[in-house]
Amino acid sequence: MARPAASAPAARHYLMCRPTYFAIEYAINPWMDPAAGVDRERAIRQWEGLRDLYLRLGHRVSEIEPVDGLPDMVFAANGALVVDGRVYGARFASAERTPEGPAYLDWFRKAGYTETREPKHVNEGEGDFVTLDDVVLAATGFRTEAAAHQEAERFLGRPVVTLQLVDPRFYHLDTALFALSGREVAYYPGAFSEGSRQVLRALYPDALLATEEDAAVLGLNAVCAGNDIVVAAEATALADRLRELGRTVHPVEMDELRKAGGGAKCCTLELRDTPDPV
Ligand code: ARG
C-alpha cells in the first residue's frame, strides 16, 4: 500500500495568546527576574513573527483573548492538553497563574469542544505532556503532579509515561524534550533523573541528544510539523544537527519571551482534531 512521503506537508492547528499584557511581575522559575523588566512591544513583535511563520507554513492559528493581570497567559502550551479532540484542562501549580486554567477551558467550550475535563490534579498542560503516536510522555518534578499523568491517561485513553525532571532551569518537559516525529524525540539528558534517562534510552535509542548550550537557550522548546522545525535562533548546534537529518529549520527570535522562561513551543498549544472550525 502506498504510504505518504515522510516529508508530506502536515498542516496543524495551533492556539496562541497575544502577549498584550506580558510582564514579569513574579518569579516562578529561575529565568524570571521581576527587577529586570521586559520590552513588551518587542515581545509582541517576536510573538507575531512566530504566528506569521506558522501561517506561512500553512498551519491554522486560533487566538484566545489575553486577560489583563495574567502576564504569563502568552504561554498557551500550559493552557490544556488536547488529544483526539479531548481537552484535558490545566490546573496551575502557582497561585499567580491559577486563573488561566478556567480561562483556557472556557475558550474550548465556546469553540465547540464537548469532551473537556476540569482536572483534579495539578498539571500545566502541554508544557508537561508531549504527545507521540503510541505514548504521551509526561513530566513531574517541578509543576505537574504524577497523579495528573494517571488522570490524563484515563481521560485520553492513551498510555502515559512518567519522566522526572531534575534541573530547575528546565522545569517543564517542553523545555527539555520535543517530538521530532510521532516516533522520535530530541532531548537534553541533563534535565532528567538517571531513571528517566534510562527510560528515554530504552524507548528512543536513536534520539537526538542536545547539548547543554542548546538547552540553555531553550532550544528544546521547538515545534515540529512534518519536516519543518521551528527552533530558537541561538540553538545553532541543534539546528545544524537537524539540518544534517534533512530537516528544514526555521530559526525564531524569542529572547524577550525567554526572560519569562518560555520559547516558541511554550507559545503554542497544538489542537489535535478540532470538532468544528474555530
Ligand atoms: N513564566 C512561565 C512559567 O513559569 C513560563 C511558562 C513557559 N511555558 C512552557 N510551556 N514551558 O510558568
UniProtKB/TrEMBL annotation:
<dbReference type="GO" id="GO:0016403">
    <property type="term" value="F:dimethylargininase activity"/>
</dbReference>
<protein>
    <submittedName>
        <fullName>Dimethylargininase</fullName>
        <ecNumber>3.5.3.18</ecNumber>
    </submittedName>
</protein>
<keyword id="KW-0378">Hydrolase</keyword>
<dbReference type="Pfam" id="PF19420">
    <property type="entry name" value="DDAH_eukar"/>
</dbReference>
